[in-house]
Amino acid sequence: MFSCRSLLLLLLSVCSLTAPSLALPFEQRGFWDFAMDGEVGDLTTVMMRDEEGSGVEELLPDVSLCPFGCHCQLNVVQCSDLSLTAVPKEIPRDTKLLDLQNNRITELKENDFKGLTNIYALSLVNNKISKVHPRAFTPLLRLKKLYFSRNLLTVIPKNLPPSLVELRIHENHIKKVAEGTFSGLGSMNCIEMGGNPIQNSGFEPGAFKGLKLNYLRISESKLTGIPKDLPDSLHELHLDNNQIQAIELEDLNRYKHLYRLGLGFNHIRMIEDGSLSYVPNLRELHLENNRLNRIPMGLPDMKYLQVVYLHSNNISRVDVNDFCPRGFGMKRNFYNGISLYGNPVNYWEVQPATFRCVGDRLGIHFGNYKK
Question: Is-contact 168 194, C-beta < 8 A?
Fold first, then answer.
């Protein structure tokens, strides 16, 4: 039972979240830190860090070659912001990172990367590429990171290197992912393809067949539901800023390994009872800025759930058992954060025991509701 002092602490903890970083907290960690959402940053530093133990062949620097206007140092060739209309010639064969971002390249031709077998990371961000030759990437035997965002692609290029681990292809014009698009890419771990005008019907059956992804993001698209047959290996799935209207019982039944699920900024009105039971290992759930009128059923049974974003919905009531299990010791991890601000619920009507499984009272966020 909570004392009067506990109730006072709860009331004092009521605050309003205004920082956008809390509303949109999706940040990858560790291996996926660099080139988030097309921001390549200090590629030299990151490549040297990531390349440790990568098995890329060590070659003596070829200082005799460097494309005009580019900077070549330590196996890194930087040709960004040069208004290039094609991939430059005479790229050193010992190149491991090739930076071609922020140019005007329109096409990748068959021999553009001929002889560049040691490239580990390739950035083509923010060009005007609409055409890729089917054998353009064939020479890139050791390519692990491909950054293709902010171009004019209408389909995902064919014959991507089997060594590829990370593909970022967001903010293109992709409307379709055909069956077998990712065949032979057993090492792929991360795909970022948000910001494309793709609908649910654009994913053909078998589009993701063979992939063992940990991370997939299809945000800012035209999805009206959770796509079918995504890789069942996923740890993170981000579908924020779409037009998803409901979560049905079978939508999540493949994803028992999910740790983080992002469904914020959609049109979700209903989450079918029992849907969340298929993601028992979930740590973080984002349902902010939707149209829910109640707390989703099943949260008390999620032993590892630590963060729940439910702000800016239509929730008018919070019951004492909406978040925490009835029995003591049934929850393995206490909540770190529960956000409920921007809902028509009076925080003073919520019983303090509702948050008995929250580790820190500062993790409870209400705020004043404004119509």
Answer: no
